[in-house]
Design a protein that fits this description.
Helices cover 52% and strands 7% of the residues. It has 454 residues and is of the alpha+beta class. It has a domain of 88 residues. The strands form two sheets. The protein has a four-stranded antiparallel sheet with strand order 4-3-5-6. A two-stranded antiparallel sheet has the order 1-2. Helix 2 runs antiparallel to helix 4 and helix 2 runs antiparallel to helix 14.
Length: 454
């Protein structure tokens, strides 16, 4: 076993697939930043709001007012540098830091694919993605290599396969498969779609999408890895992600996953792509085809492999942390984020906060719109860590206003996947007596139903 692993580490492959991946990744990220800016979302999400929800342990990460635009400029430019392979190591580190900072500025905007981009860009820091067909390789021929260790390419395949597989097994639950929830809620709302609108009103279509989505996520990594089924699998990838893009507003993510799937193909396809780009931009591709093979020195290779091993161990274990918490995951959401549970639930909630003077008993209700945008209020009303953080913000705010002996209570109702709305937070609990942590939140009321699954 040890010999086989050692032999694998010494195995080299064409660097073209990693070069193509780098180019498309950088371009897609640059377009994502432009798209975000074009739609005015920087202003709407990171400058206009008065309050921002923080990730536990990252409370210090906040938008920088008008300088927030500078972070996006840095992120976009670094993405272009990554695509070109210019000052690659500095560029990918800068992209990782700037993109992750943007992701951490407000928990309200959390999406699984933002997390995917962050960890993917972190992974790329340790890969020689500029060894071939890059400005760096053009300027410094001694650092140019046509072949690189196979694990450099396989590590990206492994990350993509992990995302798909976990997204698939997360769908093996009774709400998704037996009730077609929440697709039974979402799909009929797209009645205005040409051709598909009427079809999406049919219940059998909801079940078809639920079951096919689960099966697709589980089997697609294996179909992509197996050469005889690879072309068929890529067609499925294209169809699946284009359909999801039509049905749901999930931005650039479908296109990112489509181009990412290309890395599963043999080097021949990637050389054809690079030949096309060379003809388009008048680049002498032959300059990069030097036949040289890149090898890591033993100490450096051991260090890189150790870091990547720890990285993948975390990715494999992190989605299972919900098992450390009691209660229904979809209800408590403790351990829900960063676990590839993509679009599995529809939660609607209402939260009204009450500020009480502990001595006099006088109280008043808070108007949430005085502090939160509609989007923030919607997210806050169904997630316990949001509710707790907002309660502490209100406590500090009203203490500064001269109120003393403050208590903060919330009257909160939540509906999950079409169920009737029920009390979510114990209305008798003073939320200021609780602090956010990784511990279970005892002020949550129990979920009076069962969702079976992983």
């Amino acid at each position: 076993m040890k010999k086989a692993f050692s032999a694998y580490l010494n195995k080299n492959s064409e660097a073209a697939p990693l070069a193509v991946f780098r180019i498309f990744f950088g371009i897609m990220m640059f377009l994502s930043v432009i798209r975000f800016w074009w739609h005015g979302w920087i202003e709407k999400l990171y400058i206009t709001p008065q309050f921002f929800f923080s990730y536990y342990g990252f409370e210090w990460v906040k938008p920088l007012g008008e300088f927030t635009y500078l972070i996006f400029i840095i992120c976009g430019l670094s993405a272009l540098f990554v695509a070109a392979g210019f000052k690659y190591r500095l560029a990918i580190i800068t992209f990782f830091l700037s993109f992750t900072y943007i992701e951490l500025m407000d928990k309200t905007t959390y999406l699984n694919h933002y997390f995917f981009i962050s960890i993917l860009s972190f992974l790329m820091i340790f890969l020689p993605a500029n060894a071939y067909y890059s400005v760096d390789a053009w300027q410094k021929p001694k650092r140019a290599f046509q072949k690189i260790p196979s694990w450099c390419i396989d590590s990206i395949k492994l990350l993509i396969a992990t995302v798909y597989f976990y997204a698939g097994i997360a769908k093996i639950n009774s709400d998704w498969l037996l009730e077609a929830m929440p697709l039974k809620i979402w799909l009929p709302s797209r009645y205005d779609l040409p051709l598909l609108g009427d079809l999406l009103q049919q219940e059998w279509v909801h079940y078809f999408f639920s079951w096919s989505g689960m099966l697709y996520d589980i089997v697609i990594p294996f179909l992509l890895l197996y050469k005889p089924t690879r072309v068929f699998a890529f067609v499925l990838v294209v169809v699946f992600h284009l359909v999801t893009r039509i049905l749901f507003p999930i931005g650039m993510f479908p296109y990112i996953m489509i181009v990412s799937a290309l890395i599963f193909f043999d080097a021949g396809l990637h050389h054809r792509i690079l030949n096309f780009l060379s003809g388009l931009f008048k680049i002498a591709k032959g300059r990069f085809d030097n036949g040289r093979e890149k090898y890591y020195r033993p100490v450096r290779r051991k260090l890189v492999i150790s870091v990547l091993s720890l990285f993948f161990l975390i990715q494999v274990l992190l989605p299972w942390r919900y098992l450390l918490y009691p209660g229904e995951l979809f209800w408590t959401e403790e351990g829900f984020r960063f676990s590839w549970r993509v679009m599995l639930m529809e939660k609607a909630g209402y939260a009204q906060f009450k500020i009480v003077n502990q001595e006099s008993g006088k109280w008043f209700y808070v108007k949430n719109s005085d502090f939160l945008t509609p989007f923030q209020e919607k997210q806050m009303a169904t997630q316990p860590d949001f509710i707790l953080e907002y309660a502490h913000f209100l406590g500090k705010h009203y203490k500064k206003k001269g109120h003393s002996n403050i208590q903060v209570f919330v009257e909160n109702h939540v509906a999950l996947n079409g169920r009737k709305s029920t009390l979510y937070i114990d209305p008798e609990v003073n939320l200021l007596e609780h602090c956010d942590s990784f511990k279970t939140k005892t002020f949550l009321l129990p979920f009076h139903d069962t969702i079976k699954g992983l």
